[in-house]
Amino acid sequence: MSLQAPCRVLVVDDSALVRQILSDLLARDPGIEVVGTASDPIIAREKIKRLNPDVLTLDVEMPRMDGLAFLENLMRLHPLPVVMVSSLTERGADTTLQALALGAVDFVAKPKLDVARGLESYAAEICAKVKMAARSRVRALAVPAQAKRTLDTIAPAAAGASSLKFRTTDRLIAIGASAGGTEALRVVLEMMPADAPAIVLTQHLPASFSTAFAERLDRHSAMSVREASDGEAILPGHAYLPAGGRHLRIIRDGARWRCRIDDGPPVNLHKPAVDVLFRSVAQNAGANAIGAILTGMGDDGARGLLEMKQAGARTLVQDEATSVVWGMPGAAFKLGAADEVVPLEQVAARLLAWAQQG
């Protein structure tokens, strides 16, 4: 019997069926206590005050409410770990990415058809994410605005000053992330100049979310961010994400690297997996590479980062204080895979500094 009290969850969804199914699934886990449900934000607000839950599950799209407006108010006035329950549609992807930007910790995707059986297969994932959210760090919503202000003062100088310094064709930056990573990657890419070394990325996301995510990062970065296509050359000033639900690897082709889209089985339960990318970078870029693991649940990428370090690459992990979840970075740190442990706001500068060192 665990001495730790179960985490207290409030389920917010306009569908009575989904509220029932989610409550039943969560309640089966001894580490979770469902303290209540709410069908709309007015009821949810009252129940949050009365029940003081540790975690909220919140449907992204509700016909009678705007889940995002509710989330924004909540994160400003009463920051609480929130796991979004979203649909696997393009609109659902967009709304979910906005929710993560507002401070939601993570999300689970609701199956399109046969919700009952679909959610059943998600039971383990939903329970794991809810328990992880209970231990995660949430901040009041004012924080991103401050971070943005400092970025605005840093970015133009970096972009202007960097064009002379980089001989980027021989440097490759590889970054992996999971829970909390959609925002962490945005922060890092926002600080990158237009001629930064090429970056290859893996973020755990459902297949249908990858296009919306690449577009979102592209809007926020001076670099060109895109979904990688198989065989395309990896160029400076570009960042590449795996296309939906596939692994991204890099291969060497003479003096350059190319993207390889890999439809192989999941690795560490993930597809795309960070380990798949990092291993290929270790093998094909060696000491020309730089690796980073940002916030995320689990340990995907830890062994791959160690292989990169052993191949001569410089490596870092995001620190615990700025990570939403210190699972992946923590696992890499414990393995001895990281040269440095760096707060999120300093990751880009560190990667660029290493890229300039020959």
Order of helices and strands: EHEHEEEHEHEHHHEHEHEEEEHEHEHEH
Under the CATH scheme, the architecture of the largest domain is 3-Layer(aba) Sandwich
DSSP E strands, number: 16
- State the helix count: 13
Query: What is the terminal separation in angstroms?
Result: 54 Å
Structural class: alpha/beta
Largest sheet: 7 strands, parallel
What is the percent of helical residues?
Answer: 40-55%
Uncertain spans, ≥5 residues at pLDDT below 50?
Answer: 143-169
Strand composition percent: 15-25%
Mean pLDDT: 88
Strand order of the largest sheet: 10-11-9-8-14-15-16
How many discrete structural domains? 2
Describe the overall structure.
The protein is 42% helix and 22% strand. The protein has 358 residues and is an alpha/beta fold. It has two domains: 7-135, Rossmann fold; 143-356, Methylesterase CheB, C-terminal domain (Rossmann fold, 3-Layer(aba) Sandwich), CATH 3.40.50. Strands 10-11-9-8-14-15-16 form a seven-stranded parallel sheet, with helices on both faces. Strand 12 and strand 13 form a beta hairpin.
